[in-house]
Amino acid sequence: MIGAIAGDIIGSAFEHDPVRNKDFDLIQPDTRFTDDSVLTIAVARAILDNSDYGDAIREIGRRYPRSGYGLHFYHWMMMGETEPYNSFGNGSAMRVSPVGFAFDEEEKVLSEAKRSAEVSHNHPEGIKGAQATALAILLARKGCSKDYIKQEIQSRFGYNLTRSLAEIRPTYEFDVTCQGSVPEAITAFLESTSYEDAVRNAISLGGDSDTQACIAGGIAQAHYGMPPVGIVDLVRTVLPEDLWAITETFCERFGIEIPGPAA
Predict the structure, then answer these.
(1) Residue 139 is inside which H or E element, if any?
(2) Which residue, 79, 85, 149, 214, is the most exposed by fewest CB within 10 angstroms?
(3) pLDDT at residue 92 tops 80
(4) Which pTM value belongs to this model?
């Protein structure tokens, strides 16, 4: 979960100033948290409290109304609508990482990912994006190989994970749909050599950088372990106290050790 939040924070500086290479300073002056972090933490809160995903998303999201939500989602969140709006945006995938860390059985992860998505993103592609991301995290947590994860995600969800980043990057455009960004984020993880490399891969596509780095970062944490201390410190520093407190509680509940601040 912290890996997903860190990916969002690092990627935030590149959302409107994209890069198409991996040679950039990881921490930029205008780095911040966005709706990706807020809603990831809201999903964690729902899991901790065994409460309704939609209620938690609205309650936490409304605390930070200027975090970069999409227009339709913002209306759904602020107006208190109870019905989903058939979205296939990648918001369902960027907020789902706590599901992959909290539950240990594949069917449970898939069902909870669906529940977390469909409160707003009930289009089949919106649900699929959340399920694919959460399952990739679970499989990575279990120590499955990247080849196995790739084959499982392709066979279950029909995503094309055969293209390399070098093939994707030259013509890739900003895309906030699940079907146009989740496979690319998963590929960024599959080609990585470390947590940081996964985030750099995702940002280097020049697309929806914070969300793709959030998705890739969550899977990368599950595979490589907690991000380096300096990156965890960035999350600790950037997040408001209430959001960090939920993050800490979630990690403690599910046995995820957070390193102390760097000396």
Answers:
(1) helix 124-141
(2) 79
(3) yes
(4) 0.97
